[in-house]
Write a structure and sequence with these properties.
This protein is about 40% helix and about 10% strand. The protein has eleven helices and seven strands. It has a seven-stranded mixed β-sheet with strand order 1-7-6-5-4-2-3, sandwiched between helices. Helix 7 packs across helix 8 and helix 9 (about 180-185) packs parallel to helix 10 (about 210-220).
């Protein structure tokens, strides 16, 4: 490791501090709220210093995690909204932000090809999957939820929390759901919902969502698509460069429910997940 590498955290910290000062000057925020107390600036200075000990997630050259740097406008808009501290649990908790949430969710639904939808933003993909699988359990309380062996561990844990039956089917050599194994499991009956993953967090494997949708339709099972990680690749899946296969992402429109994380490749601040249902009823 050379001297340049040692200084990377310092350079990153300075870059972030400069961007923050440009977008939302610290002095203005404090003065608008109240007169700064004697310990406030010291506390923020200590926070900035201690943040040097994290990984450089916001740097565009960092590829060791799925955390992506929010766009400058997303960061500024989030910080501005938080000055009002809205609560979108109901319209009276934040009428303006609740309306904007509905607009954002409608744009996400349109990205996946939903002509109608019901959905909302969540704190994370885990919470979004919890809600989607809760609906799956309510609709088929005596049937299993099935996911691939390479699917996110959330599905097994969430199913346990919900008291729902959960099973896995094997993966193929590329980490995708093995279709023959899934067909065999569906043929035996007792499956209420199948979870497909267009972009697994461990391998980046893209399940054949279209083929899985066909099998679900054939056997009367619901399809839930966990696109928390890979969902925004739908914007690149047109068959051209950089070579993202179009078919699996186009088939997401056939899902009964979808989860996607805008705080990953949607370039929004953490935490921001989204759950969508095809049936608005």
């Amino acid at each position: 490791m050379g001297p340049e590498d040692v200084r990377l955290p310092d350079a990153l910290s300075e870059r972030l501090a400069a961007r923050a000062q440009e977008l939302l000057p610290l002095g203005s925020l404090l003065e608008d709220a109240h007169a700064p107390g004697p310990g406030e600036r010291e506390a923020l200075a200590e926070l900035a210093e201690r943040l040097r000990n994290t990984y450089p997630y916001p740097d565009p050259h960092y590829a060791g995690q799925m955390l992506k740097p929010p766009t400058a406008i997303a960061w500024a808009a989030y910080a501005t909204a938080m000055l009002l501290n809205p609560n979108n649990h109901a319209l009276d908790g934040g009428p303006a932000t609740a309306e904007m949430e509905k607009e954002a969710v409608a744009q996400i639904a349109a990205m996946f090809g939903y002509e109608q939808h019901l959905g909302h933003l969540t704190a994370s993909g885990t919470i979004a999957n919890l809600e989607a699988l809760w609906v799956a359990r309510e609709l088929h309380p005596d049937k299993a939820i099935v996911s691939g062996a390479n699917a996110h561990y959330t599905h097994g844990r969430v199913s346990a929390v919900l008291g729902a039956m959960h099973e896995t089917v094997p993966q193929d050599a590329r980490g995708r759901i093995e279709l023959h194994a899934l067909a065999g499991r569906l043929a035996r009956g007792g499956v209420g919902t199948v979870v497909a993953t267009p972009g697994t967090t461990a391998l980046g494997a893209v399940d054949d969502v279209g083929a899985i949708a066909d099998l679900c339709a054939q056997h009367g099972a619901r399809l839930h698509v966990d696109a928390a990680y890979g969902g925004f690749f739908r914007l690149l899946a047109d068959g051209g460069d950089p070579g993202v296969a179009a078919a699996p992402f186009a088939a997401i429109a056939r899902a009964d429910s979808i989860v996607v994380d805008p705080h990953k490749h949607g370039l929004q601040p953490y935490g921001c997940g989204c759950v969508l249902f095809a049936d608005p009823g």
